[in-house]
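Design review, sub-item: ligand-bound model
Attendees: FS, YL, KQ
YL presented the inputs for the alpha-D-psicofuranose complex:
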Amino acid sequence: MSTIIDSGLVAEHNAKLRSNLEADYAALGGMLERRGQNIEQLTTLAQGFAVAVPSWGVGTGGTRFARFPGPGEPRNIFEKMDDCGVIHQLTAATPGVSLHFPWDKTDDVAALREAATRHGLYFDAVNSNTFQDQAGQEHSYKFGSLTAASAQVRAQAVQHNIDCIELGHALGSKALTVWVGDGANFPGQHNLRAVLERYLDSMRGVVSALPADWQVFIEHKLFEPAFYATAIADWGTSYACATELGPQAKCLVDLGHHAPNTNIEMIVARLAQFGKLGGFHFNDSKYGDDDLDAGSINPFQLFLVFNELADAALREGEAFKPAYMLDQSHNVTDPIESLMSSAIEVQRAYIQSALVDRIALAHHQEQHDVLQSAQALKQAFRTDVAPILAMARLRSGGAIDPVAAYRSSGYRRQKAEERPARAGASGSGIV
Ligand code: PSV
Ligand code: MN
Ligand code: MN
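KQ shared the predicted structure:
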């Protein structure tokens, strides 16, 4: 594996911060020991953590109003892979890349595989895109894709998903995530039941093309672009469809795809209980599908999601392996910095959830000691595990402070020269 940022620079950066980190680590280790927890075990856990980066996240996103291109934006999938390589090099927590087709489509599969190997990366779930029309496309998705009334449109959308599976298969991916924007803007526009019947019919065609060791993830979203009735609007619909479609079909929870104040951790618990939790798109939001950095608005919610995942992992054992991916859009920050920070926030929630004393919690719950039950979670959430995360990075060859190391490397400045700005890069993450 070759590093993109000079490894000497990273070593220099780490050397400067190392003694402070060791002091903080020793202090935290002592505190955790008094609570009966072993910091070394937690650091090993942190080193084993991975969350995949969305290829579309490394470009500057936008809103429905405007897009302001950032300096040095990647112009194609190979440049995106370089940026993903930097994120993994410095965080040591993002070995997976989630591709989006046709945004990331390439005829040179071997070169893409080679780029991944060079950066120590692999391909996580691939995503299909039937929410936009592509240049030269025969049928428009204006009135739906997998659920369209037109059989020709549906067939085209099914075929695109099959193409994604084939390309993903050639790249070593093991799952397809399907999100459709299909839905109605007005009451009466659709026969609500017929739309879901057509969705299931189309998805049967997609599922039948899955290799035996593949999964398909159904991603629900409350609204947008459809503003009255979205075909796959909620986890209930997603669960019902995944059940209809068989064991290879599971549900994907994008944290931003729910109404404000929805109890997402309970959705996670339900899907895990019934064996249908396929994976996540982590991000954060205040109002809708805001695609803000993970943990930037409601880190307690992220912790509570991981608290359910920790409970499920205990119950289900090794077999419980939902896919962890980020899905964010960066309009006012450097995408590489945001993605590194988000990966660390998700890793933080994972380690904080490992701090919960589950035996004590179960005891408090049995005793109806509500206050202590809540405190058992709060104590874990309040614990600053930053030294564990930094030590995990150091030991795995990453940077103690990834954003600082990235800034001092001059990577963005250098890319700004190599990759001249252009408006409207594809895969902008506007959706
Ligand atoms: C839709 O809002 C979504 O969350 C889906 O995951 C898409 O694939 C992604 O955003 C990219 O626009
Ligand atoms: Mn998503
Ligand atoms: Mn979204």
